[in-house]
Specification:
By secondary structure, this protein is α+β, with helices and mostly antiparallel strands. Helix content is 41%, strand content 27%.
Amino acid sequence: MDRIDIPQGHERSGTAPTEPHTTRRRGSTYILVLSISMIVMVIGLSALTEVRVQRRTTQRTADAAEAALYAQSAIEYGFSELNDKPGTWRSVMASGSVLTNADFGAGTISLTITDPNDGQLDNDLSQSAIFHATGMKGDAVHIICVEFEPVGDGYVITPGSWTRAVN
């Protein structure tokens, strides 16, 4: 057998050849895929958080609108009571509390009546009175106050007396 001379630098060492570039490429690809996955996860979690915040805000806005309607309904209830008891409503409502945390829809309503002149509702039939209505739904609270004056057996709402307070 003839011996073949292998040029210098190309000798075989007896060990399997290694390919350092392939190993480095596999590690880089893994890091790249992992990084992209993390970015996608962060974007997804951010989107979920944003949806939760929007839902909470929408719910609070809806609760506030409903609380305002409940307070308005309490005022209407108060005027209904006045109409049902002409001439006697002052003595019937003398305690001041008409409704206290009464269940109404998905919330509650309260209604009080006061005499802004001397605090005694049943002592002078010619004095004005004020309804204080509160509507509550969830964390939302809406308060409406309206002053009215007696006229004969009826009443007239004092112009400009409607006030609202929102919590």
